[in-house]
Amino acid sequence: MANSTDNFDRRANHLLRSIRLCGGCVPLHRLQFQFSDSVIQTLLDRELVQVQNTGCGFLLEIAEDF
Fold first, then answer.
1. DSSP per-residue letters across 40-66
2. What is the rounded CA–CA span in Å between residue 63 and residue 66?
3. 23, 27, 42, 49: which one has the fewest Cβ atoms less than 10 Å from its Cβ?
4. 27, containing H or E segment
């Protein structure tokens, strides 16, 4: 039986795949209903993604060095 850490990592990997399928960046407001803030924050802490302020909103994009 999978524990909560495995499920959390699975959701984080799913988020990364979703961003890649959207061309490497996606508006942050679209993700907040599909993924928890803690999953998004974990990817930010691991420096796998970064947030870009476009002036009209925020984009979550895959980090350049990832």
1. HHHHHHTTSEEEEE-SSSEEEEE-TT-
2. 5
3. 23
4. strand 25-27
pLDDT in tens, 12-43: 999 999 999 999 999 999 888 889 899 999 99
Which band of pLDDT confidence, cut at 50, 70 and 90, is reported for residue 2? Answer: low
* CA atoms lying within 13 Å on the CB side of residue 35: 27
Residue 58: left if φ>0, alpha if ψ -120 to 50, beta else—which one? beta
The Cα–Cα gap between 23 and 13 comes to 16
Q: What one-character DSSP code corresponds to residue 3?
A: -
Q: How far is CA 50 from the centre of its chain?
A: 9
Task: Answer for the pair 19, 26: CB distance below 8 angstroms, yes or no.
Answer: yes
28, 58 contact by CB (below 8 A): yes
